[in-house]
Amino acid sequence: MGELPLDINIQEPRWDQSTFLGRARHFFTVTDPRNLLLSGAQLEASRNIVQNYRAGVVTPGITEDQLWRAKYVYDSAFHPDTGEKVVLIGRMSAQGSKDEGHCRRGRSECLCSLRKTPTVVFWQWVNQSFNAIVNYSNRSGDTPITVRQLGTAYVSATTGAVATALGLKSLTKHLPPLVGRFVPFAAVAAANCINIPLMRQRELQVGIPVADEAGQRLGYSVTAAKQGIFQVVISRICMAIPAMAIPPLIMDTLEKKDFLKRRPWLGAPLQVGLVGFCLVFATPLCCALFPQKSSIHISNLEPELRAQIHEQNPSVEVVYYNKGL
Questions:
Q1: SS3 label, residue 219
Q2: DSSP letter string over 81-137?
Q3: What are the strands, taking DSSP E only, across 141-300?
Q4: pTM flag (> 0.90)
Q5: Could you report the per-residue pLDDT of 94-103, keeping only the tens digit for each?
C-alpha cells in the first residue's frame, strides 16, 4: 500500500458543510460520547497526526479512514482557534450526560421543591456553572482573556441565569402540573440567552477574527460576534427542546395509566431513558442548525473593517468566522 497523498483537505470536515445533512454527519462524530473515553495519549496522537498532515508530513502506514478518525477526535477535544485542549466537561461530546442530569434535576425541582428556594438556587448555580464552562470552552476566536475578565463573565452569567430561573419559579405556584413541567425548559431557554452572551462578552467587546475563503485573517468584527452568538443561543435552546419538552408529555400520559400507577418506581428510570434518547440526537442535530464556519457579507460589517478589507483585497465579498458552539 502506497503512502497516503497530501491532497486530502482536512482543514474542513469530511462532509459538505453547506448542507444540514453534511453538518449533522460531522457533529455526530464530534459529539460522540465515546470520545470522552479516550486517553490523553490518544488525543495527543490524533493531534499529531492532523497537525503533521497539515504540515505536509504523512504518518507512516496511516489510511485515509484513520486520518479522518484522527480529525474527528481532534475536532472533539481541541479548540479550533487556539488549538488548546478543551477541559473534559466543556466538550460537546459531554453535553448529553451533563444535560441529562440537569433535565432530571430540573424536573425534580419543579415538581418537588417549589417552596425550597435554596435547593433551586444551588442546583441552578451548579447547572449554570457547567454551562459557563461549556460556553467559554466553545467560544470563538483566540483573543486573550484575563482571569479577572473571566471571573467577571462567570459571576455575571451565573447570577443572571439563576435570578431568571428563580423569577420563573415564582410564577409557577398557581399553574397546573402539566404547565409546571415545562418550567425547566423555559428556565433553560432564558438562561441560555443570558449565560452565553455574558460568558462570551469579550467577543462582543473586541470582536472575533474574520478571514477570507483561504483562511487569511482580515481583521476582527463585533458584528460577526453578535451574529455567531445569536446562532449559538438558538442552537442551545433547540437542543433542550426534545429532552425537556417530549419526556414531560409522555410522562404525563403514562402516569395516568394503571401500569405506572402500580409501579411508581419505574417513573424515574423511564424518564432518564427518554431524556437520554432525546439527547443522543438533539446535541449533534442542533449543533448542525448553522455552519460552525459561518459567513457574513462585507456590506454587513463595520465601516472601518469594510474599508480595511477593500484596501487589502478588493475582490473579497464574503468573510468567514468560527461562530463557536
A1: strand
A2: TT-PBPPGGGSGGGHHHHHHHHHHHHHHHHHH-TT-HHHHHHHHHHHHHHHHHHHHH
A3: 208-211, 217-221, 293-297
A4: no
A5: 876 555 455 4
